[in-house]
């Protein structure tokens, strides 16, 4: 892999041009494969492709790349683009049956939510074997005679897994905050109680707490619902920061109450959105969590925001 | 560290008398929810299920049913706002990070 691939991967993680980060669907040769070499199926997201290439250096095989619109295997399988129909079509388009003499395909296990193995067998005569979850286990899987251990079959969500996802949580959160900060900069020109650096820090801290700190510490935070975890840390951050900044004095009290209502709600909302990045939340669970949390988040943020705005516009701080 | 999400929410169900014991459910499940003994599948820990639907999709006997979908709050919000089905749709450079 070249330096360009590494920079490209970094950019994709931060959301720069990630929708164009694709490779062309089709059949690729890795090493020097022949008619007996295994066929591995994957997605056309370039990050996926590069991780695969990196882990296949000592294996001669074919790579059948499906058109998943530049999206990773698991997500594409959920959407159905990494699916039975696309697989069948790609087998035909690449004339795979003429290239290899066997009729076996190795699919990433996480593709299974989009592909029906028995249907592929029925329609194309190819048997599907599900390989390991992680590309780094492919070599061991092949060496073991196409057998995966329980560890290879289980999805994890390690600290590192979570951390690499946080830029894509943070970038939109900051983008959403920019117009608000811009508007407040304008009202600051005439407001009775202008927002200062500490108010902005409290807010940015709440964003960071929800979008980065909560995901990072996820399994160590008490409770199960993501919104709850984010709220808890958001409250800790806001109360701690306001305390350290001596913002519980009489003249700041009303504003601080507003911040205590708004900031943890922001953290909670962002943490709740991290369910989409997690590897273990069910839609039924997320729905249940949202039904409870969303009204509280909206209510708390609305009351807190209104209180802050009221104080900001109309309550002059008494001179010391 | 083992992650656990909400209890008693999954829609996963297995009809044992339809099971042919092929073992594919245990193979595709990313959270080890199934075990197969004596050619019969069993659900071990239902609360680990994330409703990805891989088991049901690959069960040749149609013995498994689950309301499969994406466990993504953002997808639900967008679904409610636009009146469409919640989907893990990452196009248009949205804030959806599930497609990393």
In short:
Chain A has 14 helices and 5 strands. With 320 residues, chain A is mainly alpha-helical. Mean pLDDT of chain B is 86; it is low at 90-100.
Uncertain runs of chain B are 90-100
What would you call the structural class of chain A?
mainly alpha
Overall 3D form of chain A: elongated
Mean pLDDT of chain A equals: 93
> Can you tell me the number of structural domains of chain B?
1
What's the gyration radius of chain B in Å? Answer: 16 Å
**Major sheet size, sense and barrel closure of chain B:** 2 strands, antiparallel
Mean pLDDT of chain B: 86
- Major sheet: arrangement of strands of chain A: 1-3-2
For the secondary structure, the number of strands of chain B is: 4
- The secondary-structure class of chain B comes to alpha+beta
Give helix and strand order of chain A, one letter per element, not per position: HEEHEHHHEHEHHHHHHHH
Give your account of this protein's structure:
The complex is a heterodimer of chains A (320) and B (100). Chain A is mainly α. Chain A has helices at 3-13, 46-55, 73-79, 84-93, 96-99, 117-124, 138-143, 150-153, 159-163, 167-187, 197-217, 226-244, 253-273, 283-314, and strands at 26-30, 39-42, 61-65, 104-107, 127-130. In chain A, the strands form 2 sheets. Chain A has a 3-stranded mixed beta sheet with strand order 1-3-2. The longest helix of chain A has 32 residues, at 283-314. In chain B, the strands form 2 sheets. In chain B, strands 1-4 form a two-stranded antiparallel sheet. In chain B, strands 2-3 form a two-stranded antiparallel ribbon. Chain B has a single domain (1-91), classed as Alpha-Beta Plaits (2-Layer Sandwich), CATH 3.30.70. In chain B, a hairpin with a 2-residue loop joins strand 2 and strand 3. By secondary structure, chain B is an alpha+beta fold. Chains A and B meet through helix 3, helix 10 and helix 14 of A and helix 1 and helix 3 of B.
């Amino acid at each position: 892999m070249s330096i360009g691939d590494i920079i490209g991967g970094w950019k994709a993680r931060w959301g720069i041009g990630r929708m164009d980060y694709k490779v062309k669907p089709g059949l690729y040769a890795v090493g020097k494969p022949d008619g007996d070499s295994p066929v591995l199926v994957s997605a056309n997201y370039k990050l996926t492709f590069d991780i695969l290439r990196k882990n296949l250096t000592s294996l001669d095989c074919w790579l059948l790349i499906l058109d998943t619109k530049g999206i990773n295997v698991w997500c594409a399988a959920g959407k159905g683009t990494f699916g039975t129909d696309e697989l069948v079509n790609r087998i035909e388009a690449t004339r795979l049956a003429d290239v290899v003499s066997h009729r076996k395909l190795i699919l990433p296990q996480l593709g299974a939510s989009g592909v029906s193995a028995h249907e592929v067998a029925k329609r194309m005569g190819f048997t599907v074997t599900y390989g390991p979850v992680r590309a780094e286990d492919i070599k061991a899987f092949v060496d073991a005679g196409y057998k995966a251990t329980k560890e290879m079959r289980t999805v994890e969500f390690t600290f590192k897994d979570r951390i690499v996802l946080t830029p894509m949580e943070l970038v939109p959160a900051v983008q959403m905050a920019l117009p608000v900060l811009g508007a407040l900069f304008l009202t600051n020109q005439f407001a009775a109680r202008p927002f200062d650096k500490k108010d902005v820090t409290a807010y940015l801290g709440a964003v960071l707490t929800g979008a980065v700190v909560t995901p990072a510490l996820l399994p160590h935070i008490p409770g199960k619902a993501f919104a709850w975890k984010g709220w808890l840390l958001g409250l800790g951050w806001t109360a701690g920061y306001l305390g350290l900044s001596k913002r519980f004095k009489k003249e700041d009290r009303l504003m601080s109450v507003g911040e205590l209502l708004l900031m943890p709600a922001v953290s909670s909302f962002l943490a709740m959105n991290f369910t989409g990045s997690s590897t273990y939340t069910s839609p039924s669970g997320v729905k249940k969590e949202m039904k409870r949390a969303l009204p509280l988040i909206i209510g708390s943020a609305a009351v807190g925001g209104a209180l802050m705005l009221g104080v900001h516009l109309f309550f002059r701080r008494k001179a010391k | 560290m083992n992650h656990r999400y909400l209890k008693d929410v999954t829609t996963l169900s297995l009809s044992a008398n339809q099971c042919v014991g092929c073992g594919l459910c245990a193979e595709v499940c990313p959270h080890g929810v199934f075990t197969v003994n004596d050619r019969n599948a069993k659900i071990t820990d239902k609360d680990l299920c994330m409703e990805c639907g891989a088991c049901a999709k690959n069960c040749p006997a149609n013995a498994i049913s689950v309301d499969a979908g994406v466990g993504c709050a953002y997808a639900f919000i967008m679904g409610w706002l636009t009146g469409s089905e919640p989907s893990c749709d990452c196009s248009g450079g949205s804030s959806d990070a599930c497609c990393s």
